[in-house]
Design goal:
Elements: H1 3-18, H2 20-23, H3 31-53, H4 64-87, H5 89-112, H6 120-142, H7 150-170, H8 175-183, H9 189-210
Amino acid sequence: MTTLGFIYACITVLAWGVWIAPSEKVAIPNPQTRSFYVSLGNMLLASIAILIVGPEKLTLDIIFLPFLGGIIWAVAGMFAFIATANVGLAKAVGTWSPLNILVGIFWGMVLFGELLKSGLTYQIFTAIAVILIITGILMIVLSGSSKKNPELTRNTKAGFLGAIGAGILWGTYFIPSSYLSRQHENINDWVTAFPMAVGMFVGSALLVLWGRKS
């Protein structure tokens, strides 16, 4: 990983750890509408980016896959808000964040052959890290169980299922764009961010309509 790539990774980690907290302060009663407004903000930011990069670079052959990734993100966003509503922000993020990593490692190995050609030492450290991540997830999930209050148990199960769904889908939504970038090396990620943002917005809007939420 280059220095610039490491900086981008750090920014991503910080942003992913913070973005959901402000929306928890807003009195919106359902996860579909919360996800909708988050996707709206993301699409506005992506619109600014495409205007800077140049909208003429956005061609039809690079729209579909990032758009599909955006749809996947929208469903994951709804699951995330279900999780935070039922088990709280700390347990929800503590479950879906490491799960993101595991899913990302899985897709990287299966689809792109990552880690398979790495040295033995690197593979061993990766395996140890995966074991620690799985252990951490299990500790978080098991700490949320309750036998005294059936209602709390049911809500806890819904919350952790939501966090698991968010973890799997958020570990997957960028795969269509990654595949596209590997097929076309000259594709600019700032350009593909716009159709992905549109997919997020459309997916969230459809979830609001499907759930008949205001």
